[in-house]
Design brief:
Layout (H helix, E strand, L loop, with lengths): L1 E4 L9 H8 L3 E4 L1 H7 L8 E4 L13 E5 L14 E3 L4 H9 L6 E6 L4 H13 L3 E6 L5 H8 L7 E6 L7 E6 L11 E6 L2
Parallel strand pairs: 1-4, 1-5, 2-3, 2-4, 6-7
Antiparallel strand pairs: 7-10, 8-9, 8-10
């Protein structure tokens, strides 16, 4: 099995990923991942949307699993098989904001990990790291901002929405007047940058 990062938006597939996609016989992924990879999949490739992520380990050995962004950043890199990296939202956000990756801590707050994500964000900010927070639409951003406001200022917050898409939007504010997410596909960069 090959787990291929298709990038976090259009035009971010690596040459290695494209080469592997062109040889794929079976491809599985989310609708968004499929849309990013489809131009490079051969006509005879069987393409299926993933309905049950718990059953991915049962896919055939010659399957290609498409992972948005990079499989090793909150993606499908936990699966057994060859991982082909992609260009992640972390890379795009830090590039747009001119932040060295060595200053960043990644926090994932997806699904049931909301409270842990809040605690981890606070801990990393206290350590003076810049946090790249991957959250889902149900994450309580207002509660995070309330908790961050109790820390020593100054803190900046960058809201990064729809990175690498035509409607990409990045806005930077302070913890006193932080930007609020309006899109389902977003990340936050928090710290002194």
């Amino acid at each position: 099995m090959k787990i291929i990062g298709v990038g976090c938006g259009p035009g971010l597939l690596t040459e290695q990923a494209i080469k592997e996609l062109k040889r794929a016989r079976f491809a599985y992924g989310s609708e968004r991942a499929i849309a990013l990879a489809r131009p490079f999949l051969p006509p005879n490739c069987s393409v299926k949307s993933i309905d049950d992520y718990k059953r991915l380990h049962t896919l055939p050995d010659d399957a290609v699993v498409l992972s948005t962004g990079d499989p090793m950043l909150a993606g499908l890199g936990y699966l057994k098989g060859e991982v082909i990296p992609g260009i992640s939202s972390l890379q795009i956000a830090t590039s747009r904001l001119h932040i060295p990756l060595s200053r960043v801590s990644v926090v994932v707050a997806h699904g049931h990990g909301h409270e842990k994500g809040m605690r981890d964000t606070l801990d990393e900010v206290r350590r003076q790291k810049i946090v790249f927070l991957l959250a889902d639409p149900k994450f309580d951003v207002d509660e995070l901002y309330r908790r961050l406001a109790t820390l020593s200022p100054p803190l900046q917050v960058a809201l990064c929405e729809n990175l690498a898409y035509k409607d990409e939007h990045i806005v930077v504010g302070s913890i006193e007047d932080p930007p609020k997410p309006g899109a389902a596909l977003y990340s936050l960069v928090i710290g002194n940058f």
